[in-house]
Amino acid sequence: MKEYICYCDEVTREDILEAIAQGARTLRDVKRMTGAMTHCDCKNKNPKGT
Ligand code: FES
C-alpha cells in the first residue's frame, strides 16, 4: 500500500525523496517536480481533512 504525503495529487514519500535526489532544494522545487499541492481537495481526499 502506498503511503501518500500529498493525497490530492497522490505524491508519496518516495516521490519526494526522488525529487530531492534529482536536485530539488526547496519546497517550490518539490512541488514543481512532483506535482504535490497543485490540485488541492484536502477536505475530501486527505484523511486528516485538512
Ligand atoms: S493532500 Fe496535498 S493538496 Fe491535499
Summarize the structure.
The protein is built from three helices and two strands; from the N terminus they run ββααα. It has 50 residues and is mainly alpha-helical.
Describe this structure in words.
With 50 residues, the protein is mostly helical. It is 42% helix and 10% strand. The chain has one domain. It is built from three helices and two strands; from the N terminus they run E-E-H-H-H. The structure holds FE2/S2 (inorganic) cluster. Residues 6-9, 36-37, 40, 42, 45-46 line the site of FE2/S2 (inorganic) cluster. FE2/S2 (inorganic) cluster binds next to helix 3.
Mean pLDDT: 95
Domain count: the total is 1
The biggest beta sheet is recorded as:
2 strands, antiparallel
Shape, please?
Answer: globular
Sequence-ordered SSE layout with sheet pairings:
Layout: E1 4-6, E2 11-12, H1 13-21, H2 27-34, H3 42-45
Helix pairs in contact: 1-2
The structure holds FE2/S2 (inorganic) cluster.
Which tags fit this structure?
binds FE2/S2 (inorganic) cluster; 50 residues; 10% strand
